[in-house]
Amino acid sequence: xxxxxxxxxxxxxxxxxxxxxxxxxxxxxxxxxxxxxxxxxxxxxxxxxxxxxxxxxxxxxxxxxxxxxxxxxxxxxxxxxxxxxxxxxxxxxxxxxxxxxxxxxxxxxxxxxxxxxxx
Length: 119
Hints:
Blueprint (H helix, E strand, L loop, with lengths): L2 H16 L5 H13 L5 H15 L3 H8 L2 H7 L1 H16 L8 H10 L2 H5 L1
Helix pairs in contact: 1-2, 1-7, 2-3, 3-7, 4-6, 5-6
């Protein structure tokens, strides 16, 4: 793996960990991966980390559906949930595939380097 790819992934992983929207599972996988960098565990931890990111990243359609649900109204508040759903529709129309919150943005950036990270 190229050092520049590793450095990029480490930077994005730190952003992911700091993101308020990061799930507990993704945060834990990110920390475990960071701890493994440069060790014999790195390859195995990278695979687990990528799997967790793929499971946790939210699609634009998923964001819209969640925002329009009862659970979304509870999390965001009824009015803000409508705004989040509208935002999801707007970014989808602009070509976005995933939610653009800080956690999903970091996850997407890391996943774009998936092949290089796994090689």
